[in-house]
Amino acid sequence: MSGERSSPGEAEIEAARLLLSRMGVSPRDLLDVPEVKPVAPTFAEYVPQVEEAVSAGTRRVYGSYWKRIVGEWGDRRLDEPTALEIERLAERVRVKVVRRRNARGGRSAVEHFIAALRCVYRHAVADELIDERDNPARRVAKPRRLPNTRRGLPDDRIAEINETAATTGNDPELDTLILRLHIETACRRGGALALRPQDLDPDQCLVLLQEKGDSVRWQPVSPTLMRHLCDHAEHRGALASGGQLLRYRTGKPITTRRYDYLWQRLGKHMPWVAAQQISTHWLRHTTLTWVERHFGYAVARAFAGHTDSNGADGGTTTTYIRAGLDEVAEAVAVLTGEPHPLARHTRPH
User: Fold this and answer.
1) Separation CA 346–CA 349 (nearest Å)
2) Among residues 37, 101, 93, which one has the least CA distance to residue 65?
3) Among 47, 114, 121, 276, which residue has the least CB neighbours within 10 Å?
4) Over the stretch 160-173, which tens digit does the pLDDT of each residue have?
5) Residue 71's closest CA among 42, 98, 38?
6) CA distances from 206 to 221, 229, 244 (A)
7) Which residue has the higher pLDDT, 330 or 318?
């Protein structure tokens, strides 16, 4: 005998069907056996893993919200909260938000809270800990964003800001350098704080800006600003250490607290600054508005460092109208009134 099992005959198949029928089981039920999934971890177990996987910028934005989530739901599994529970917790976040003069009803806090939770669930789906269909954060809508109140400032206001920064405070040299850097480059605070001596190209008057989304770009600056940046790096210790460029007189690198101090001081001397909650980002709006008005959308887009390859901010046409570094250098030359080594020609203002 071979020992091999013979194929079931018609009588055996019919008997099996009869038995399954009496048991209330269909052949399809035998094929649709649900896959056994691992038990979802708790928020206290999983959120720290997500924090380790994301960038420093993401941790800075979402960190406080993740701490709140762990504090509220630390012992609960990821697959337990419902969309309604998320909405209720979001409302508690909104109610407890710190009230500032530029607050907009806690909308930003709720938006960041939901985004932070979605980030956790996005990783959980990728790790196959939950199914995308069971993602409760996906079913909770973010609050609609209100129109931005920031705008470009007129020349006389910019002059007033620079004059006040240069004649008040405990380090006018540092503050005026910070302001000029932001006005000339339209960079964000993160780009200025990340600047190092090795990011300066004095021969071509370029600075390497590293900003949000891990974006990196060379940005033209005036010879005057480049000279002051190099002197600052040399005299305040950054050149010797190779670390962060912007520093106090003691050689200690500045942080975002210097920006807070600067604008609080300016607000005390200029009530309109405090009333409108003017900040460094207003300088970015100011410069980019000027560039767009004088040099067009493509140059403004390159000046801002917007490099979305899909053209989401302006349609497919942006793929074909990208401005070059020489065009950005030309805009800087007109903006500052100084020739730039990379500008092909300089238009009159």
Assistant:
1) 9
2) 93
3) 276
4) 999 999 999 999 99
5) 42
6) 6, 11, 17
7) 330
What's the chain's average pLDDT? 86
146 or 204, higher pLDDT: 204
Select from 1.10.8.60, 3.40.350.10, 1.20.1600.10, 1.10.443.10 the CATH code of 155-336. 1.10.443.10
Sequence letter at residue 187: C
